[in-house]
């Protein structure tokens, strides 16, 4: 996966040198390269921003340095590289979006600062607008890094066998089941018995039930999007019944 980034703060992307993504870069499964509009200004003051036409507080990123930086990035990019603009107006990024985008060869992420970027850049360099959530960030950098992390994990060979277990399609759209490790008792808090008994079929069933139950409790919106098999419906009903029992006492 090739990721070019247009940013005033390229050093921020050193955060991608840790853990899974750091290893992906060392193994040449991920390439991160930044272009700073600061290095592409054609005005004598080297400004990358200016006051908004029409007035209002704050500054807007000027079109010329952005345009020149994107042009430079395109020269190193694989062909058919998608340009992605990070903005709260974009399509909401989620796991299905990450799965689709993971099939691409590369991206140029445009991470704006200040009040945003001059609208004309999108006409000069058409691309897709994406948002990582309904909140306001100080810049597009963390949004770009969030997308790069979620997408790159899905690129073949980026995760080891043990790490991949997490991306199972059968638990797609559900929350994770609870995890435990040694000791089996800590300050009177015990690990659920089924996990200690080594019956793998019983463990798989318990975990699926926990995933269904937690999703129902914490993220009912996710369950509404999913169609459950007969087995899953029965496991969820059993979980709900046991919850009711607790409440009635
Ligand atoms: N931004 N998802 C960059 C965001 C954002 C988001 C606000 C984008 C500030 C300059 N980006 N501008 N939410 O809040 O992607």
Low-confidence stretches: none
Which oligomeric state applies?
A: single chain
Query: How widely separated are the two ends?
Result: 54 Å
What is the total domain count? 2
Question: Structural class of the secondary structure composition?
Answer: alpha/beta
Query: Roughly how many Å is the radius of gyration?
Result: 23 Å
Helix content: 25-40%
Mean pLDDT: 96
Alpha plus pi helix count: 9
- Main beta sheet: 5 strands, parallel
Bound molecules: ligand 4HQ
Which CATH architecture of the largest domain?
3-Layer(aba) Sandwich
Order of SSEs, N→C? EHEEEHEHEHEHHEEHHH
CATH class of the largest domain, named Alpha Beta
What is the beta-strand fraction? 15-25%
CATH superfamily of the largest domain: SPOUT methyltransferase, trefoil knot domain
The general outline is elongated
How many beta strands in the DSSP annotation? 9
CATH topology of the largest domain: Alpha/beta knot
Strands of the biggest beta sheet: in what spatial order? 2-1-6-5-7
Question: Explain this structure to me?
Answer:
The chain is of the alpha/beta class and 249 residues long. The protein folds into 2 domains: 2-152, Alpha/beta knot; 169-248, Trp Operon Repressor, Chain A (Orthogonal Bundle). Helix content is 37%, strand content 15%. It contains 9 helices and 9 strands. The chain has helices spanning 19-26, 63-76, 95-101, 121-124, 141-152, 161-164, 200-218, 220-224, 230-248, and strands at 2-6, 31-35, 49-50, 60-61, 82-92, 106-110, 128-131, 185-186, 189-190. The longest helix is centred in the C-terminal third of the chain and has 19 residues, at 200-218. The mean pLDDT is 96. Bound molecules: ligand 4HQ. Ligand 4HQ binds at residues 86-88, 112-113, 116, 131-133, 135-137, 139-140, 143.
């Amino acid at each position: 996966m090739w990721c070019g980034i247009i940013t005033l703060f390229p050093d921020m992307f050193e955060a991608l040198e840790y853990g899974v993504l750091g290893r992906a870069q060392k193994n040449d499964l991920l390439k991160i390269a930044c272009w700073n509009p600061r290095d592409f200004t054609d005005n004598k003051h080297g400004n990358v921003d200016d006051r908004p036409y029409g007035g209002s507080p704050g500054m807007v990123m000027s079109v010329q340095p952005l345009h020149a930086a994107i042009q430079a990035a395109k020269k190193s990019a694989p062909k058919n590289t998608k340009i992605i603009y990070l903005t709260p107006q974009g399509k909401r990024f989620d796991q299905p979006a990450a799965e689709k985008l993971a099939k691409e060869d590369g991206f140029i992420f445009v991470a704006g600062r200040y009040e945003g970027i001059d609208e004309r850049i999108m006409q000069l360099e058409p691309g897709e607008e994406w948002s990582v959530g309904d909140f306001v960030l100080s810049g597009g950098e963390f949004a770009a890094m969030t997308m790069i992390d979620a997408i790159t994990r899905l690129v073949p060979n980026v995760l080891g066998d043990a790490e991949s277990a997490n991306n199972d399609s059968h638990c797609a759209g559900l929350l994770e089941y609870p995890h435990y490790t040694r000791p089996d008792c800590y300050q009177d808090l015990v690990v659920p018995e089924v996990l200690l008994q080594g019956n793998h079929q019983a463990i798989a069933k318990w975990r699926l039930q926990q995933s269904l139950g937690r999703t129902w409790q914490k993220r009912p919106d996710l369950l509404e999007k999913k169609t459950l098999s007969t087995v899953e419906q029965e496991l969820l009903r059993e979980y709900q019944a046991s919850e009711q029992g607790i409440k009635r006492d």
